[in-house]
Design brief:
It is a single chain. This protein is mainly alpha-helical. The chain has 2 domains: about 60 residues, Homeodomain-like (Arc Repressor Mutant, subunit A, Orthogonal Bundle); about 130 residues, Tetracycline Repressor, domain 2 (Orthogonal Bundle). About 75% of the residues lie in helices and about 0% in strands. The longest helix is centred in the middle third of the chain and has 29 residues. The chain starts with a helix and ends with a helix. About 20% of the residues are buried.
């Protein structure tokens, strides 16, 4: 990478970090291009040097943050684990990450961030699915999982966990949320072909948090 390209990428990433905060706080639908340019304290020409539109800003900042989260989770995931334990750890790390960013997620779930939220869920599903699929494939080779389509199964698991279990989005009450999680555990066992009660730790954690 040349010095010019490195400087370009560093500056663009710096802007993307600011853009993330803009969309989270003000809301994607409420944010105009003129507001972005003013808040970034840059000229229109300079802005178009890095981005072509508001939508590209959103897509790029979501991609950057999803990649950061994925790398952080990979670093936290212990090496040498059996597939069943590795999947459990991956889920636990995900729950911990969600809990630590609860206020931010509530802002993402606001009506003014509907499009941003949809884009984020799609990005998380696409970026994280290969990691889940890798663990599922390991579990198949170890004889603890029984799955014909690992990647597609991983995508379904992530879609359920990120969308259906989003209590702020669906306005589930606490009692309903626990029941949804228990149902998810049951579905997860069946979809990967795991033993009964393999994932019942998820609802125990949710109950403790409540």
């Amino acid at each position: 990478m040349t010095r010019t390209n490195k400087n370009f990428n560093n500056k663009r990433n710096e802007l993307l970090e600011k853009l993330w905060n803009i969309f989270i706080i003000k809301g994607y639908e409420n944010t105009t291009l003129s507001f972005i340019i003013k808040t970034l304290n840059t000229s229109k020409g300079s802005f178009y040097h890095y981005f072509s539109s508001k939508e590209e800003c959103a897509d790029a900042t979501i991609e950057m943050h999803t990649n950061l989260w994925l790398n952080e989770i990979k670093e936290k995931l212990p090496e040498g684990l059996k597939a069943k334990d590795k999947l459990k750890q991956l889920i636990l790390i995900g729950i911990e990450t969600s809990s630590s960013n609860d206020e931010q997620y509530k802002k993402i779930n606001s009506p003014s961030n509907t499009i941003f939220h949809e884009k984020l869920m799609v990005s998380i599903t696409k970026k994280f699915a290969p990691l889940y699929a890798e663990i599922i494939i390991q579990g198949i080779s170890e004889g603890v999982f029984n799955v014909k389509y690992p990647l597609e199964t991983a995508e379904m698991i992530l879609t359920l966990s990120n969308f259906y279990l989003d209590k702020d989005l669906f306005k589930w009450d606490e009692k309903s949320s626990v029941l949804k999680v228990i149902a998810f555990e049951n579905i997860l066992e069946k979809i990967v072909g795991a033993d009964e009660n393999t994932f019942n730790f998820i609802s125990r954690i949710i109950k403790m948090e409540d």
